[in-house]
Amino acid sequence: MHVMGSKRMAIGAILAIALATGAAAHHGWSWAEGEQTELRGTIEKVTMGGPHPTLDVATASDGVWLVELGNPRQTERSGFVEGSAKKGDPVVVLGNRSLKADEKRMKAVRITVAAKRYDIYPERIQTN
After folding, report:
1. Is the entire prediction scored with pTM above 0.70?
2. Which of 14, 39, 51, 122 is surrounded by the most beta carbons within 10 Å?
3. Strand 105-113 to strand 63-68: parallel, antiparallel, or no bridges (unpaired)?
4. pLDDT attached to residue 35
5. Residues with Cβ < 8 Å from 61, sequence gap 6 or more?
6. 38 — alpha (psi -120 to 50), left (phi > 0) or beta?
7. CB 32 within 8 A of CB 98
8. Average per-residue pLDDT in the chain?
9. DSSP assignments along the chain, one per residue
10. How far apart are the C-alpha atoms of 105 and 102, rounded to whole Å?
11. Is 31 in contact with 25 (CB distance < 8 Å)?
């Protein structure tokens, strides 16, 4: 009985560490550059589900980018809800792009869709 309990505890600890590491990697900003850049394009796809709503943004010169927004509640608090954007809408994204130069992925702090601004992470917006 004691051996079985130890094995269960060890397996539980390994699972907890794996889940915590994955959550920290996904929800943190360590994968993104510190400097913010602007991405301009046209929305190809809007996904409002969790863990983060996303936009696929087609640019004129650099292909399609994956833009992550905040968690669903945070994104909703910014005013960006189902129906706020659709395929074909022009979009300007202010955010932090991936540290991996070949990865077309960005974490948005602000998006502007058809002249309507949504501050996803207002406290993180860098101004000059």
Report:
1. yes
2. 39
3. parallel
4. 93
5. none
6. beta
7. yes
8. 85
9. -HHHHHHHHHHHHHHHHHHHHHHHHHHSSTTB-SS-EEEEEEEEEEE--SS--EEEEEETTTEEEEEE---HHHHHHTT--TTS--TT-EEEEEEEEBSSTT--EEEEEEEEETTEEEESSGGG----
10. 9
11. yes
| Residue 119 pLDDT exceeds 80 | yes
| Upstream peptide bond of 51 is cis (omega within 30 degrees of 0) | yes
- Residue 69 gets the label, from left (phi > 0), alpha (psi -120 to 50) or beta, of beta
Residue 11 has pLDDT above 80, yes or no: no
Read off the tokens for 107.
């974490």
Q: What is the pLDDT of residue 127?
A: 75
Whether the per-residue pLDDT at 25 is higher than 90: the answer is no
**Which of these, 22, 23, 29, lies nearest to 107 by C-alpha position?**
29
